[in-house]
Amino acid sequence: AQSVTQPDIHITVSEGASLELRCNYSYGATPYLFWYVQSPGQGLQLLLKYFSGDTLVQGIKGFEAEFKRSQSSFNLRKPSVHWSDAAEYFCAVEGTGFQKLVFGTGTRLLVSP
Amino acid sequence: EAQVTQNPRYLITVTGKKLTVTCSQNMNHEYMSWYRQDPGLGLRQIYYSMNVEVTDKGDVPEGYKVSRKEKRNFPLILESPSPNQTSLYFCASSSLALPEAFFGQGTRLTVV
Predict the structure, then answer these.
(1) Nearest C-alpha of chain A: how many angstroms from B18?
(2) Which residues of chain A have pLDDT under 70?
(3) Is the dihedral of CA B39, B41, B43, B48 positive or negative?
(4) Are B50 and B58 in contact (CB under 8 A)?
(5) How far is A93 from A87, CA to CA, in rounded Å?
(6) Are B42 and A101 inside 8 Å of each other by CB?
(7) Which residue does chain A place closest to B104, by CA atoms?
(8) Which of A9, A43, A46 is opposite residue B90, by nearest beta carbon?
(9) Residues of chain B with pLDDT under 50
């Protein structure tokens, strides 16, 4: 069965510093990979997605993620964090062909001044 | 504007009182699903629907019902809610051609 691991429950980053959120997945083939962000009291917004091709994908709000097949990872990065990036971030995979997303448990990002 | 609309956004109810959370999408998507979000557990799929009149269980279907009589609507029904169904619920839709899910704003349900 597919699974997604986000090993960091909380991460605190200073404003202006770089950010990397980790995501590892378990799946036999190459799945579709997603990062979603959930701001307080809000729904889920898609940051970026990987379906195939270039393993470095660009998303909205200055985020990027790199798919590494050998490590079964899809880490999210941002070179300079803004206070408005404070939110919860979810990594998700879809690989069954039936549209079902399997989510990680989320990483809550705190941004310090 | 393409969107998934859930109602209500917030709901407090008592144990055993039947309730329905509505979900509607305007993107003509075939696939719709319901997830619940609980602290430390992420989002888990409750039910999904591949098209009109086609529904199936997800990972945590106990205590829930769904129906898909129209393509745009996918209501979630709790016939006898219990406190362990207190959660944040999300409806999502996607095209069968592309597994990119669009989510509603969420419904925070409290069962007392």
Answers:
(1) 25
(2) 95-98
(3) negative
(4) no
(5) 20
(6) no
(7) A43
(8) A43
(9) none
